[in-house]
Design goal:
The chain has helices spanning 22-28, 90-96, 130-149, 161-172, 199-206, 217-221, 225-231, 233-248, 258-264, 271-283, 293-299, 331-340, 357-360, 364-378; strands at 5-7, 35-40, 45-52, 67-71, 100-103, 114-115, 154-159, 180-186, 318-323, 344-348. It is an alpha/beta fold. The chain has one domain: Alpha/Beta hydrolase fold, catalytic domain (Rossmann fold, 3-Layer(aba) Sandwich).
């Protein structure tokens, strides 16, 4: 891969400056080994990803362990998977189960704010949606992991937008089906017409006023003074709570993680990303970004953006987890997607289980993680 940069930092050996990276701190403080790696996408974005090569509970890393790659959701980063710690954080549980664990990141978040030629302070840096995350970021990260581990394929876990990007990757690059051992999608967003969250309704009301650039509260309120309002220490928490409620819905136990989430979940994303989801919500079409008929004709050769070719999504095993109380992914939309990609459906019927509970619920291990890890174990490859 061109422009590949590697930095190995072993937290267990005391070589990490925790002030430089939250994910390093979140792993290292539990005495798990952690590595930081940097890579460049084919269109120039520089991403930082993290690795837990083994668990202190099962000895040092051995050669040819199966790799598991985790991709975060909308507004998030690799930090999101780590907030629950070893007791119920999926990366720790996977490491304890004997896997080589990798945590991905997407352009624009805290670990993806660099580029070979673009400045994140300029609008051009932010001219992307989740299409580019799927078409460029995921392939680059998967190829990187397979190159480092010398494995032909890996297991994939994606939450929310991580699932959206995964579907885009396989629709655009079907050859990556051969690089996936199992697919595990937690509340993946694709079909959105039955979404109950007010977030998309708000985006549609102000869509024409949202210019290219990084998301800010002013993007949705049409009043830039709200940016200053939400930046004030006194009101910052209120603004973040509003965003979390819009995305996930109300949940009593999520409040316990609010302080941590404020440092991680709103870590940077583009206005175009929100607008792309709003287009899918409005039209019911899982399609590429709509630039307007004139630009669509130039970019796509058609006045309407083309649908993603979900028939190209054909990994051997796809597990899909969804719930009744998710404000972003309805049961109707989840079942539509599951049928289109022949996924094994895991319908969570726990009361008030919302979009963030797939990461943070107190009973997340019992409800979904045990089944997820067992599925990966059942498809563990025979590696040379």
């Amino acid at each position: 891969m061109n422009s590949r940069l590697v930095l190995l930092l072993l937290a267990a050996g005391g070589l990490v400056d925790f002030a430089t990276s939250n994910s390093l701190d979140l792993v290292g403080k539990h005495n798990y080994p952690v590595e930081q790696h940097k890579l460049a996408t084919s269109d120039g974005y520089i991403l930082t990803i993290f690795r837990i090569p083994y668990s202190p509970r099962n000895g040092e890393a051995r050669a040819h362990k199966a790799a598991v790659f985790l991709q975060h959701g909308i507004t998030g980063s690799s930090d999101d998977w780590l907030l629950n710690g070893p007791s119920s954080g999926l990366p720790f549980l996977l490491a304890d189960a004997g896997f080589d664990v990798w945590l991905g990141n997407s352009r624009g978040n805290s670990y993806g704010r660099a580029h070979n030629g673009l400045d994140p302070k300029k609008a051009a840096f932010w001219e992307f949606s989740w299409h580019e995350i799927g078409a460029y970021d995921l392939p680059a990260q998967i190829d990187y992991v397979l190159g480092v581990t010398h494995q032909p394929a890996l297991h994939f876990v994606g939450h929310s937008q991580g699932g959206t990007a995964y579907l885009v990757m396989l629709a655009e690059h079907p050859e990556y089906n051969d690089k996936i051992l199992t697919t595990n999608l937690l509340a993946p967003l694709a079909f959105c017409s039955h979404m109950r969250s007010q977030l998309m309704t708000m985006v549609l009301k102000v869509e024409e006023y949202m210019v290219e650039g990084e998301y800010s509260p002013g993007s949705l309120t049409q009043h830039k003074s709200s940016d200053a309002f939400c930046a004030a220490p006194l009101w910052k928490h209120v603004c973040q709570d509003i965003l979390f409620t819009l995305i996930a819905g109300k949940s009593p136990h999520i409040k316990k993680l609010t302080a941590k989430l404020q440092k991680t979940a709103t870590s940077g994303f583009s206005n175009r990303l929100l607008k792309h989801y709003a287009q899918v919500f409005k039209t019911g079409r899982f399609a590429k970004y709509d630039y307007g008929s004139a630009t669509n004709l130039r970019v796509y050769g058609t006045r309407r953006p083309p649908l993603y070719a979900l028939s190209n999504v054909a990994p051997l095993t796809v597990n899909m987890f969804y719930s009744d109380s998710d404000q972003l992914l309805s049961v109707e939309d989840a079942e539509t997607l599951a049928q289109r990609i022949s996924a094994i459906q895991h319908h969570v019927e726990v009361e008030d289980w919302n979009h963030l509970d797939f990461l943070y619920a107190p009973n997340v291990v019992q409800v979904i993680y045990r089944d997820l890890i067992q599925s990966i174990r059942d498809h563990y490859p025979r590696l040379i």
